[in-house]
Amino acid sequence: MSDQPVHQPFESAETADAPVVTAPDGAEVRPLLVLDGLGSLAVFELAPGQVTHAVSHATVQELWQVTAGHGELWRRQHGREEVHRLAPGTAVSIPLGTAFQFRADPDTDGPLRITAVTMPPWPGTDTEARPEEGPWKATGR
User: Within its chain, how far is the Cα of 29 from the centroid?
Assistant: First the structure.
C-alpha cells in the first residue's frame, strides 16, 4: 500500500453552465463539482416567497453559505430547535440527521442563493432525503 495521495483530475465549473435539477426538498440545484468519496459542491436557489419541504438526510451532512437573497432556515436535532436568519455572508451547518426547512423572503428582488458543500458527496438515491414535519407550508411539488 502506497503512502502517496490519490490524484484526482483538476475540475472547474461555472454556475451558469451547470444543469438545473430539483432537489428532493423542492429547491432548484446546480451541481458543480465532486471530490470522489469526500464531498460535492452545489448552488441552491429559491425564488422569492418559495418554501422547501422539510427533510433530513440519511447519510450526508452539509455546510452552507448564503451568497444572495434573504430568508430563514429552521433546524431541529436531538430536542433542539431554532430558526436562523439567512442573509449574504451567513454560514450554517446541517449535521447528519438534522431536520431542516428553508424559505426565501417574499419581498426581495432576487432569489435566495446558497452555496453548499455536501459530505460525503450527494448519493443521488431516493432514500437520502427523508420527509420531516417542518414549521412552514411548502410551496411547489
Answer: 8
Degrees, nearest 5: CA angle 77-44-24: 60
Reduced to 3 states (helix: H, G, I; strand: E, B; else coil), residue 130 is strand
The angle subtended at Cα 7 by Cα 3 and Cα 8, nearest 5°, is 150
Distance CA 30, CA 19 (A): 6
Task: Tell me the sheet residues that pair with 4.
Answer: none
**DSSP assignment letter at 50:** -
Residue 93 backbone dihedrals phi, psi, to 5 degrees: -110, 150
Q: What share of the chain is helix, strand, coil (3-state, %, to 5)?
A: 0, 45, 50
The closest alpha carbon to 81, from 63, 58, 56, 105, belongs to: 56
Q: What is the pLDDT of residues 50-104, one digit of tens each?
A: 999 999 999 999 999 999 999 999 999 999 999 999 999 999 999 999 999 999 9
CB contact set of 33 (below 8 Å; sequence gap of 6+)? 11, 12, 13, 40, 41
Residue found by looking up cell 452555496 in the block: 115
Q: What angle do CA 35, 102, 38 make, to 5 degrees?
A: 10
